[in-house]
């Protein structure tokens, strides 16, 4: 049992595991925006000027995306890409403020970052952008 827990804990330092998790996070974000917009995979492929097969790979988290392709897919779903680096122990929470109706072009994004230094240190900081 402790071998299993040790293996699981070792994933915290595994770059490949972290990269795969981020690809899946991105795929989920794109899929969520597609659902909000009523957009099909074919619609996304057309908007991103790519093939349906590549869209399937992206949505499965099977594609090694560049920053350029992240931006291209984000633009195709009328979104805005945010890349944010925070301390490892930070808890990050993103919220969106919708103005002028559901998911129209006047969406204002508000990012709030809540930082907890460590469990033993109760110092907290709040940053808004």
Q: Figure out the total of helices.
A: 5
Structural class: alpha+beta
The CATH C-level name of the largest domain is Mainly Alpha
Q: What about the largest sheet?
A: 3 strands, antiparallel
The SSE order reads HHHHHEEE
Low-confidence runs: 105-129
What's the number of extended β-strand segments? 3
CATH superfamily of the largest domain, called what?
A: lambda repressor-like DNA-binding domains
State Rg.
18 Å
CATH topology of the largest domain: 434 Repressor (Amino-terminal Domain)
GO molecular function, one term: DNA binding
Pfam family, one: HTH_3
Domain HTH cro/C1-type: 30-84
Protein name: Helix-turn-helix protein
Question: Could you explain the architecture of this structure?
Answer:
- The chain is built from 5 helices and 3 strands.
- The chain has a 3-stranded antiparallel β-sheet, with no helix packed on it.
- The chain is an alpha+beta fold and 129 residues long.
- The chain starts with a helix and ends with a strand.
- A hairpin with a 7-residue loop joins strand 2 (108-116) and strand 3.
- It folds into 2 domains: 1-79, 434 Repressor (Amino-terminal Domain) (Orthogonal Bundle), CATH 1.10.260.40; 82-129, no CATH class.
- It has helices spanning 2-10, 15-37, 41-47, 52-59, 67-76; strands spanning 90-97, 108-116, 124-128.
């Amino acid at each position: 049992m402790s071998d299993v827990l040790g293996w699981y804990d070792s994933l915290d330092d595994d770059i490949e595991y972290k990269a795969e998790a981020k690809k899946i996070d991105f795929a989920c974000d794109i899929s969520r925006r597609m659902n909000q917009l009523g957009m099909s995979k074919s619609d996304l492929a057309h908007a991103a000027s790519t093939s349906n097969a590549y869209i399937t790979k992206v949505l499965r988290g099977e594609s090694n995306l560049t920053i350029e392709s992240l931006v291209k897919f984000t633009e195709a779903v009328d979104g805005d890409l945010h890349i944010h680096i925070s301390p490892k122990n930070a808890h990050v929470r993103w919220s969106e403020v919708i103005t002028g109706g559901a998911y129209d072009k006047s969406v204002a994004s508000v990012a709030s970052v809540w930082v907890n230094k460590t469990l033993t240190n109760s110092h907290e900081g709040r940053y808004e952008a």
